[in-house]
Amino acid sequence: MKTPALVSAALLITASVLTASQTAPPAKGLKDYYKPYFPVGVAVSPQGLKGAEGELIKQQFNSITPENAMKMGPIHPEENRYDWKDSDEIIKFAQDNKLLVRGHNLLWHEQTPKWLFKNADGSTVSKAVLLKRLKSHIDTVVKRYKGKIYAWDVVNEAISDNPKEFLRNSEWYKICGEDFIAKAFEYAHAADPKAVLFYNDYNTERPEKRERIFRLLKKLKDAKVPIDAVGLQGHWSLQEPTEPELRAALDQYKSLGLKIQITELDVSIYPWEKDRRAKRPDESDAYTPELEQKQAEQYKMFFKVFRDYKDVLTGVTFWNISDKYTWLDTYPVAGRKNYPLLFDQNQKPKKAFYEVVNF
């Protein structure tokens, strides 16, 4: 018969073993756990390829996406000048470590250089000139990385946030009407016929926006535009999407015969906000045990659904490597720390990581 002291000691030892198992380095990477299902990727910058984060990428992931380096503004800042430094560095890292690369992106309403839409005298370009510039850009970028990039986000976020509108009232739309979307896919397919071509957007699971995205995708498919897949960004939160919403979205997009990827996954600990604002003085950004547990449960549900759709889901990519740096630290609330990923600020696996890999 054990004395109370021995029982207490045994409980302490058991607890310490459990704690150690939760904090010990995982034996395998996400890419290994999900090898029978789909590649697992991460968005990167050249800075994130070095040091502890670079090692974490190699351990955990088998696909990378340039977070900003291949967007039109950074890579093509002036009409007759391209800046290949950052994108070339990312491609070299991928090739050295045998990683897949998703190209991101060829056409977007943000991070687009002003010269694209202007004539030399400052007036707005014609539709013909803008499409010619778009074709030249896509030709140059896609052909440079042909055979090194297996998939491209061709058009990003073209659907309006206003439920009363169909397409976003961007410069692309104002000058070209709807045609710029189909043309972008045609140019990309011509530049690399083997690349998998995506339309990419956010809030793709919200029923109202989902219907407009579906409408666009169906129009493109019916018109025989060379689109292969849809990217659901996955900028989600503890509140949304629900499991029924996620499954309904996957079923609806799947019905078009398109492949699907989750392209920019993170799970914010705060409810969704669209408009930028300052952090309030009384606003806490503490990562409490309660928030950590809710996040782990949400991640567990998402990946259960992803595994159920492995017949059409061909990849899941996280948007940033660890909580050390995430775009959600500055958007939409500047200076409010977020903790949306599977690895903490020291690149150690969080509770959510174990919920994702223990199945």
- How would you sum up the major sheet? 8 strands, parallel, barrel
Average pLDDT for all residues: 93
Query: What is the assembly state of the chains in this entry?
Result: single chain
Widest sheet: strand ordering: 1-2-3-4-5-6-8-10
CATH topology: TIM Barrel
Give an overview in words:
- The structure is a single chain.
- This protein is α/β, with parallel strands linked by helices and 359 residues long.
- It has a single domain (38-271, 279-357), classed as Alpha-Beta Barrel (TIM Barrel).
- The protein has helices at residues 4-23, 30-33, 51-60, 72-75, 85-96, 127-144, 171-176, 179-191, 207-222, 243-254, 289-308, 351-357; strands at residues 40-44, 63-66, 100-107, 151-156, 196-201, 229-232, 235-237, 259-268, 277-278, 313-318, 333-334.
- Helix 6 (127-144) packs parallel to helix 8, helix 9 (207-222) runs parallel beside helix 10 (243-254) and helix 11 runs parallel beside helix 12 (351-357).
- The longest helix is centred in the first third of the chain and has 20 residues, at 4-23.
- The chain is globular and about 55 Å long.
- Mean pLDDT is 93; it is low at 1-23.
Give keywords.
eight-stranded parallel β-barrel; 359 residues; two-stranded parallel sheet; 12 helices; TIM Barrel; alpha/beta
Quick structural overview:
The chain has helices at residues 4-23, 30-33, 51-60, 72-75, 85-96, 127-144, 171-176, 179-191, 207-222, 243-254, 289-308, 351-357, and strands spanning 40-44, 63-66, 100-107, 151-156, 196-201, 229-232, 235-237, 259-268, 277-278, 313-318, 333-334. With 359 residues, it is α/β, with parallel strands linked by helices. The strands form two sheets. Strands 1-2-3-4-5-6-8-10 form an eight-stranded parallel barrel, surrounded by five helices. Strands 9-11 form a two-stranded parallel sheet.
